[in-house]
Amino acid sequence: MQALIHELRRKKENLLLGGGLDKIQKQREKGKMSAWERIIYLLDENSSYTEIGIFAGEGQYKEHGGCPNAGVVVVLGYVKGRLCIVVSNDATVKAGAWFPITCKKNLRAQEIAMENNLPIIYLVDSAGVYLPLQDEIFPDKEHFGRIFRNNAKISAMGIPQIAAIMGSCVAGGAYLPIMSDYALIVEGTGSVFLAGSYLVKSSIGESIDNETLGGASTHSEISGVTDNKYPNDESCLDAIKNIVDKFGASPKALFSRIEPVAPEYSINQLYDYFPEDRLKPYNMLEVLKSIVDKGSLEEYKKDYGKTLICALARVDGWAVGIVANQREVVKAKKPGNSTEMQMGGVIYSDSADKAARFIMNCNQQKIPLVFFQDISGFMVGSRAEHGGIIKDGAKMVNAMANSVVPKFTFILGNSYGAGNYAMCGKAYDPRLIYAWPTAKIAVMSGASAGKTLLQIQEATLKSKNITLSEEDKNKLLNDIEQKYNEQLSPYYAASRLWVDGVIDPAETRKIISMGIEAATHNPNIQDYKLGVIQT
Question: Does the pTM exceed 0.90?
């Protein structure tokens, strides 16, 4: 675990450099702060923050020079004591141009703001759409245009939006700051226009420089497009703080919170206890003792459906309902005084039944849900099928999918197949979802996938009267497993925003606490309706 965390920290430190030290230095020579410097200056001193979408874009777009951290930094943090979403374009990465993953990350930031009624602050410094990939970012529903649609929807929801134009702001991207409630601009570096001077020249023959066309003075004194101009980044960021400071209070959801208590175990104890080997059994209750407040855990039906732990607890004082995979092999009592050995990390009919009822309880009682995944999937085989595992699994998925209380998901180990779905994977709208460095995310394990794909390839070759030697089979199996195992990595998932990032397990408590605090800003909890429940 320590080695994995060391690798995680090294990767995060590299991301702080964006497109590289030389490009950060060029920013400074222009009088501009870097994307991270702007965020740190804006956030309250020594306050907590959570990064959203960290590692987005990792390993992608190599033929285009890469797009580290999707070319934009997104954090959930405090400005003047107010929890906000801050979006800061990184102009050291392709001049802040939008790659497809950049768009996805910006949409995720807006989604979090909309779900939680949080003010959103855009620190704009972008050359607009990355033209070589325009077909992957321009026309579809979840592409670039969705950003401005969300601007309008966020405004209609009464959620504050503040934009600071601190660099380029071109073409369609010009609508983002101007559709915000406040549009500020930095003199000398900030500019906003639908078409730059070269395109104006080629389109209508007019010769004009960019500053006159769309600089700070033009838009603050002539067009009225921006509200005010500021001499440098710092003064512009100070103005944002002054605006946020004046926001009035809004109604809040009253999730239960008391004085926090430290966990029973230290995080170092968790590092020593949690196995890196994904096949090795362990007791999830021991892991939870490093996360929940000491003495707060109250198990639900602890002697029934034992491959899933359902429990009420507190995390940093907040009341939560926990659904977690138990990784120990357990004995389940059956009718006729018989017992059944059940594998850890697998959902059986009894555990699915228990979880469905527990999730319903938490929704009735307005208790946020936290899912801890280390799951191989649902039980298979004739005994499970005859026992109705599909309908019991469907009942759990129904109860979870229709939940109206905030949901948070952490992938600790395995996250395979339908198990990912039932335990509130990304498709089921968790408010936040993060992976530990030990996570493995795919439709099935590398070993299982390798054997299955090998059988398919063997059958295909056999139909052509080609027989593989044992040596050829082993080589093919190794090639399949190697490629598949690369896709199991939590960084592969984070790169594609299947999760909001890879985190040190020590951050888990903070993320749950900040996530629930964010959720309190949206008091509009719908009625809990399930539709048809399988029986």
Answer: yes
